[in-house]
Amino acid sequence: MNALAEYYADEDFVILGFPCNQFNLQEPAFTANELMNGIKYVRPGGGFEPAMTLFKKTDVNGKDEDPIFTFLKSACEYTDTNFESALFYEPLKVGDIHWNFEKFLIGKNGKPYSRYHPAVITSGKIKADINALLSA
Hints:
Elements: H1 2-7, E1 16-17, H2 32-41, E2 53-54, H3 67-75, E3 103-106, E4 112-116, H4 124-134
Parallel strand pairs: 1-2
Antiparallel strand pairs: 3-4
């Protein structure tokens, strides 16, 4: 995501990150400071700093999911039909966010444009869609 943020630094484009602990309890931080220290010094570590706006830890699925994710999931086709075994929320629903690093691309009009499986980690496909939205 940092590569995309840097590539589009001079464009009308922002990346928002929502840490979540519902997937194998991979985000145990409680405060924003703990979260940033974990990113900077542990995973990925080495002084890494995210080039995106990070929000507080957020539930993206289940009975306490944030309404923004209810909206996003209802507007885009889901990326997978299999559930992982290390999920920490209920109830499980078709269309849930599959795992950490699932991504949504939203147009300037606020309408969700596309949803990307967590395995989409190279920026090629996402860049093509971003370029299409920026030139629209």
